[in-house]
Amino acid sequence: MTSSPLPRILRRRGEPEYPTFLELFFDLVYIFMLSRLAAGFAEDLSLRGAAQTAVLLMAAWWVWVLTAWLTDLFNPRLPIIQATVLAVMLGTLLMAIAVPEAFDRYGWLFVAAYFGIHLVRDAVLIAGTRVNRPIQARSIRVFFWFGVTAAPWVAGVFVEGTTRLLLWAFAVAIDLGSARFGWPTPRMGRTELASQIFTGTHLSERHRAIFIIALGELVLTAGRGLSLSEFEAGRTMANAFGFGSAVLLFLLYFHRVRQLLAPPNVAVVERVRPGTSTSYSHLVMVAGVLTVSTSVSLVTERPFGPTPASWAAVILGGPALFLLGSALFDAVVTGRLLWSRALGVVVLGGLAPAGTQLPPLAVQVVANLVLLLILVGETWAPRLRLFGATAPAR
């Protein structure tokens, strides 16, 4: 990679690649973050509410991604890295506190915490890699692009409504998009998209962990709803099916991940381009789980009666987002589209108009049935093909 000396702050090849306890501890703050996002979305199901939730989720996700990359490239057992992770965790907690009022009176807190996180992290990493210029250049490029987006983020604090939403949406799109192009920086070039800066096993485990955290928030929503339902039939069933959704999403995710991330394939995510793509596809999957959590709250509130179009979109859209993200993830790793999940997205979208003719609980059941059929099809189809191939001729 380079003849420059490797600073002590960097992770060495051959060191344990699985996440440390501190990294798993850091993930816990995202249960609070995701629950705040889901609750806020449930209160405002308009297009504006969906867009605001998406912007806040992408900002929170970008903090998580950069922290996962931090502990992938740098030694997570060093005290300075551990202190940095804890500082990021505190900043994330402040962002989560600001979420319900981020587009109102607490916009300044959200932005201050967001940029405080990046300033602390980049200050540590740029100083810690000064003896290795190529490694240091990576952190400088990331810092440069946060400087570019500082203007729209800060400007958004001083305006309201649609203007703040547009400024922040532009800023977070640049934050995520700059990585996809290797953070091109004047006079420093960019990080080559084919270069190896990730440890495949570590990054894959980090993605699995945050997906489990998202499922944990969904289980928390279902459990909380069940505890407050007084075991009324409709509300009890809504939360029981919510728990069923969590089980189905878990099985669909890990059924495929076990196949995709076998040792020959895990090295795919060690490159910049596929490494960032797997992070983006997991963002879509986590957004799907968050939307399912929102739908459980809605159906618990009113399981029967007419289903508003916005409710149908949320109840069916959550599973659709998950299937879309998992299909994208599959395409990144294998280069092929998983047609069963792509078809599931189409089916769920096609059912949306009919969903308004059913009670919310029935729409929730239909969404779970689509997930169940996909799981059964993916589980049994290979076995049936194998049975047909090995059956003796008569």
Q: What would the keywords be for this entry?
A:
single chain; 394 residues; mainly alpha; 2 domains; 14 helices
Architecture overview:
- The chain has 394 residues and is an all-alpha fold.
- The protein is built from 14 helices and no strands.
- It has 2 domains: 21-180; 200-387, no CATH class.
- 76% of the residues lie in helices and 0% in strands.
- The longest helix has 31 residues, at 360-390.
- It is globular and about 65 Å long.
- Residues 386-391 have low confidence and may be disordered.
- The gross shape turns out to be globular
Number of domains: 2
Radius of gyration: 22 Å
Number of helices: 14
| Poorly predicted regions | 386-391
Order of helices and strands: HHHHHHHHHHHHHH
Output the structural class: mainly alpha
What share of the residues lie within helices?
over 70%
Q: Sheet with the most strands?
A: none
Find the count of extended strands (DSSP E, 2+ residues): 0
**Average predicted confidence as pLDDT:** 85
How much strand? under 5%
User: Distance between termini?
Assistant: 60 Å
